[in-house]
Amino acid sequence: MGQPKNPLEVLSLDQLRARKSAKWRAFGDEALPLWVAEMDTPLAEPVAAALHEAIELGDTGYPSSGPYIRAFCDFAKQHWGWTVSPSQVRPVRDVMSGAVEALKLVGEIADTVIVSSPVYPPFFKYPVSAGRRVVEAPLGPDGRLDFEMLEESFNLRTTGGQAAYLLANPHNPTGVAHTREELEKLAGLAADYGIRVVADEIHAPLVYSEARFTPYLSVDPRGYAIHAASKAWNLAGLKAGLMVAGEEAVDELENLPPEVPHGPTHLGVVAQTAAFTSGQPWLESLLTGLDANRKLLGELLAKHAPEVKYTAPEATYLAWLDFSAYGFTDDEPTPGVETPVLGPAKHLLKKAGVALTPGHPFGSGGEAHARLNFATSQSILTEAVERIGQSLR
């Protein structure tokens, strides 16, 4: 059987506007929503078949996660050459709640969590909700890990207790796929300063051909990694995630609260098991389409908004756009707007009818930036960038 059709070119704009998910409801029927990390695709056929079978059977009870764990371990071995034992893995509700549970295993209330900004906004919110304080060790000017900054932050960890480092691997929003050499250097620094690392690896299956995903735990047996099929197969509404402990951290899993492994939904487990088991052809077709879109985005920006700085990501379907040449400054949230839009994103929503994710919540380095989700059809992407260009002129 050949490769499935590019899933980004299956659904029409009218079909997408019929969706009731946050992406398509938050900004009304006129805006083109290229903001939250949700793709404009139908479900992969094996995933849809598994869900249909469950519904037809009335199979909507409590989750049984054993097949899910085995499917992930098999996928990791086949896709990344990474051998993971099921004894290292525990189900969690989703990636961010799993990351918080890992942070609890390696630290205490009031400890510090270090993040490399600009970074996924929940990296700031979730640890704080768990009683930690978050400090930034910003990325370098090239959007990659700044090891001088990291060492400085690790060295200062003793103020207010111990510290952990929360890593995005690949990085959201810059789309950097950290190299093995970078991760080995990070692991060495962490060992030198007694820092434990928790890696959010939800975008791991979404890496393009010029780069390679390196599992963090393949260089650090003391760390934790959190995985899910939700980003790569568009399953964010079907909650299920997996916490993976490094080989030297497995004993700590005994301290995981007993309710944590019961967090995933049954249909989330069913869907993500099918994705890891049978979703590879669909994923390959998706990556071909995303690769074409990230290149098209560069061409469109060069034509319609040439002063927007854009580096094609090595991973993810997210583009980190720098609008600083246009003189934008971040301002206060608009009163009465449920999802605040700051800086260039506010301008583009108002003047172009294009919804991007504002850069401000990503922390230092997010000023005058916005994040664009290019996991859509080429016609929608083209219209969106044309609108952006017109509004900037």
From TrEMBL:
Keyword Membrane on entry: no
Keywords: Aminotransferase, Lyase, Pyridoxal phosphate, Transferase
Entry EC number(s): 4.4.1.13
Domain of life the protein comes from: Bacteria
InterPro entries for the chain: Aminotransferase_I/II_large (IPR004839), Class-II_PLP-Dep_Aminotrans (IPR051798), PyrdxlP-dep_Trfase (IPR015424), PyrdxlP-dep_Trfase_major (IPR015421), PyrdxlP-dep_Trfase_small (IPR015422)
A Pfam family annotated for this UniProt entry: Aminotran_1_2
Reported cofactor(s): pyridoxal 5'-phosphate
Keyword check for Transferase: yes
Annotated Aminotransferase class I/classII large domain residues: 101-388
Gene Ontology terms for molecular function: cysteine-S-conjugate beta-lyase activity; pyridoxal phosphate binding; transaminase activity
Enzyme class: lyase
Family: Belongs to the class-II pyridoxal-phosphate-dependent aminotransferase family. MalY/PatB cystathionine beta-lyase subfamily.
Protein name in the entry: cysteine-S-conjugate beta-lyase
Source lineage: Bacteria, Bacillati, Actinomycetota, Actinomycetes, Micrococcales
